[in-house]
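Structure first, sequence second, as always.
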């Protein structure tokens, strides 16, 4: 294990202990004991179908790129979700870890990153659609729901983000990368331009 990976594991452990201390070890253990081992098992089983479907959809994106076996995508998705939950304060940490896992299984790093970006785009679009459906159902049941104004506003704010993510995957993204490469130059700029092409 590299020094950076060991440092990351150590930092994660320290962060976990800090969270336990902040929220109270007693409260955390009480919550875990109320669920019990069987409850954790059922939660895992309930999560498994969505994990497998997400991994299968992710593998479809790597078609024609000498993609690793389906199990590699299941492993990458599982680790990606875990890293995203554990390192929630670091934006895109889970996605970066998922890309790294796929590259470790033999998928070309650029292809792995491209599949992560497309997967994120589809995931964001489906979350917006799912959120709108949920809001419509809530409005149908009760119009006096707390957050009835803020939730649609939040979904509307996600639309420009989704548009930007889609635009970045086309020629617009390549133009921005070329401008950044010229602006900052050097090895980092050339690497950025190579990554988007």
């Amino acid at each position: 294990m590299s020094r950076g990976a060991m440092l990351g594991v150590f930092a994660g452990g320290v962060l976990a202990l800090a969270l336990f201390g902040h929220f109270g070890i007693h409260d955390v253990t009480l919550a875990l004991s109320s669920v019990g081992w069987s409850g954790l098992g059922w939660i895992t089983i309930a999560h498994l179908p969505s994990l497998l479907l997400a991994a299968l959809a992710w593998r479809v994106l790597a078609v024609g790129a000498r993609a690793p076996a389906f199990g590699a995508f299941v492993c990458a998705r599982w680790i990606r979700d875990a890293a995203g939950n554990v390192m929630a304060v670091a934006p895109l940490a889970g996605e970066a870890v998922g890309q790294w896992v796929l590259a470790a299984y033999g998928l070309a790093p650029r292809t792995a990153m491209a599949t992560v970006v497309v997967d994120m785009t589809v995931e964001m679009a489906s979350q917006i659609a799912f959120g709108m459906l949920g809001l419509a159902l809530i409005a149908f049941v009760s119009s006096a729901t707390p957050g009835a104004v803020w939730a649609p506003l939040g979904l509307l704010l996600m639309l420009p983000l989704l548009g930007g993510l889609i635009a970045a995957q086309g020629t617009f993204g390549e133009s921005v990368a070329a401008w950044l490469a010229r602006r900052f130059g050097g090895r980092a700029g050339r690497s950025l331009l190579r990554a988007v092409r």
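Margin note: The two ends are 31 Å apart (CA to CA).
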